[in-house]
Structures are given as structure tokens and as C-alpha cells.
Amino acid sequence: MDENERMVGYKQAQVASGNRSIDIMNGGDIASQWMLNSHSATPESNEHRNGIGNFQPPEDWLPITQSRKGNSWTATFHLLCSGIGIQTLSLPLAFVYLGWFWGSVCLSVAYIWQLYTIGLLISLHESVPGTRYSRFLQLSMAAFGEKLGRVLAIFPVMYLSGATCVFFIISGGGTMKLFYQLMCGDCSSKHPLTTTEWSLVFICLAILVSIFIPNLHSLALVSFLGAITAIGYCTTLWVLFVANGRLDNNIYNPSEAVDSEVGRIRSIFYAIGIVALSFRGHNVVLEIQGTLPSTPNRTSSNLMWKGVIASYLIIAMCFFPLAIVGYWAFGNKIPTNGGILTALSTTLYHHVSKPVLGLIYVQVVISCLAAFQIYGMVVYDNLERAYASRTSKKCPNVTRVGIKIFFGGLTFFISVAFPFLPSLAMLIGGVALPLTFGYPSLMWIVIKRQRPKSGRWWLNLGLGCLGIGLSVVVVVGGVWNLAYTGLDANFFQPR
């Protein structure tokens, strides 16, 4: 396919300062020529080099887009596995600081908001004829320009993916240790493994699984297991709380959870951060849609919407009962570190039988292992793209294995060197929050070129600015909370 054929579907091509761009003044779409050359969905367009001479590998060379044989079921599994995580267990803690009413309001607003921005991303995935934006970074560069889009997106995307994987290692390793102590009893004191050693066991399992998964679509079965276990431990927990009842002398007054007015303000910021971080995963939405086939009669957005509707109905049935019932069961006694998982491991909630508690631990570990693969796939894709761009050839299997071992070793090293990272969850997530609540609305305005000052234009502008503002609030709250409470390296340890 030559250059003229690739430009079919666009309004007007023009040359300015050696760069090509698309005229969008008549209601068309926007995409830089660099994005067209780099990320066109057509195989032929991958044979050329961009304006600076770098080879752009074909989409079927890379893990995320190597296979486009997915369907609405696989999309549902990926969305559930990446959307329900260990951070969900801290939702009742947000109610401790916000109370029944404001806690429910914040959780509901966040749920509707992120569902709306997911809809924007789905519609933008194929907003330019002949091009599929199968990565958040691609869409960002198409909307904001190559340089600015890369600056705005590359750090949050890679940062969120890497930090989330580190968090999975810490959580998974700590939970494996709790499971061993629970099942072994006295034998655990003879040759006990440290938390670091259990984290090593976890990352070895994660790397082993990743070696047998060449692309995101082939991860469907693992995502199914991760989704089932994530739904399983969330449902088991809130049903267990209802069956066993509340703790004695529970207090449900947010003002009594802190000792000063300043602490009250800080705790509100912290609670908003917990709620906002529960709805992470936008940095993999476009990637998941990229695994779906697309035809003129049935675009990928149709299949993706079915997956989103199914998955987020289930997510709502996990998040809301767990948050509300968890707060009802524990009140203000929920531990600030580890949330419900820590509470179950202490004498706070001694009604849980050993088999049930062991089942919860196993489900948490499997969920972490599965979700690690989805977020790790974003990093593998970027590293393989860098390799292919430099060598102008497909990444061989040996190199792919090396990339996965390197990434696993790096995340393990970070988890060991910084075991207090869960204490920085608010700070880590605040930097990446624009991916969920800010950028999608702004990218819609730029790419769709809506009529200025229309109702939809004001809505997206307001949500975009508010999302970025929320990111600043969460970061400030995270720094403030860190300065007050300090770092805690025993996030998942029973006390």
C-alpha cells in the first residue's frame, strides 16, 4: 500500500515545516502523520520508516496486537481481572473517614465517572479511518501531538504498570506468607521464610506464567482465573461479614477516627484517594480493545461495549457490598494498613474458620498473579517495540524471555528495596489518576473537534480539568499523610 492509499478517509493532507497533518476544521479527525506512519492498522504501512528514520514494527510483531481474535467474553475477563484488585479491600477504610453518606456518594460518583471515560476511550479507539489506537500512548500522541502526548502519557502509563506490578509482588508475597503461617501452624516456626523470600516465590511464579503467554489475547484463560478469584474473595468477604455480624462496640463516627481538625482534612484527602485508586485500569482499556477484531460491519467498539457492560456490572456488585458491609462489620476499627486483609489476620475478627481464611488467601494470590500478567504486558510491549525499532526485526523468543525475566527481576528488586511502597499507594496512584479521570475527556475534545461551548464540550472540559485537579489533591494528600504517618514496611503483616 503506497502513501496515497494510506491517506484514504482523511479530509486534506498538507505540508507544513516538513511535517504532515490532517485538516480537521470541517469535522474530521486529528492524527499526526507520525502516528499514521507508526501505528496504522494496515500491515503494509508498517514497512516504512517515520520522519526521523526509525523503523516502526508491524502490529503483529508486538504482544498486545499480535492476535486480534478476541471477543466480548475475553474482553470481560481482562477487564474484571485488571479492574478488581487488592486495593478493593481498602474501600471500607474510605468510609471510616467519609462516613456512610459521603462514602457512598464518592464511591458512586467515581464509578459513574470512570465508566463514562471508558466509553470515551472505546469510541476513540477507531476514531481515525484505517487506524486503530491500541495503546493509550498512541492515542495521547494523536490528540496532543507527538512530543507533548508522549510526555503526558509515557510516564504515567509505564509508572502505573510498573508500580502496580510491584504492589502485586508485595501483596502476593505477603499473602502467601500469611497462608503458610495459617496452614502450617507450629511448623512455620521451624524453617520460616521471610517476606522477601515469599516475594521471590511469587515473582518466580509470575515469570513462569508469563513465559508461556506470547500475547495479550492468549492471556484470556489466566484472566478468567484471575477474574473468578477476585470476584470470589470479594463476595466471600462481604457474605462472611453479614453471616458473622458486627464487632462489639463499633463506632461509625468519622470525627472520632482522627484527633484534630487538620487530621480530619488530611483523612478526607486520603479517603478520596482510596476511592479513586479503586478504579484504576484505564491504561489497559485500549490494549484490551486492541485484541478484538474489527470489520466495517462490526467494529471492535461493539464487542468492547458488551464486555464493559458485563464486567462493570459485576465490579459494582463487588465494590459496593464490600465497602458498605465491611464498614458495617468493623466500623472505625479497620486497620489503616492492609484494610480488611490485615483485619482478618488479627484478633479483630476471630470468627473466621481456617479453611475459609485459607481460601481467601489463595484467591488473593491467584488474582495478583493474573493481574500481574495484564499490567506487565504493557511493559513487555513497549520494550519489544524499542527492540524491534532498533534492530528492524521481530523480537526473537529468547529475547522475549529475557525481557520478561529482566522486568520481573527489576520489579522484585524494587519490592525488596522499598517494602513500604503500599504506604505510598496514594502518592503513586495520584500521579496516574489523569489516565482515568482527566485525559480521556480532553482527548475527546481535541480529536472529535466538538462544537465549542456545547453541552458535551463543557462536560468533557469540566471532567478533564476536575480529573487533573483530583490528581493534584491525591498527590498532596499522599505526601501529607506520608509526612504524618511515616513509612510502613509491614503492610500485610499480622499484629
UniProtKB/TrEMBL annotation:
It is found in: Membrane. The keyword Coiled coil does not apply. GO terms for biological process: amino acid transport. Keywords: Amino-acid transport, Membrane, Transmembrane, Transmembrane helix, Transport. Residues 69-475 form the Amino acid transporter transmembrane domain. This is Amino acid transporter transmembrane domain-containing protein. The chain crosses the membrane at residues 77-102, 108-128, 148-170, 198-217, 224-247, 267-286, 307-330, 358-380, 401-421, 427-447, 459-483. GO terms for cellular component: membrane. InterPro entries: AA_transpt_TM (IPR013057).
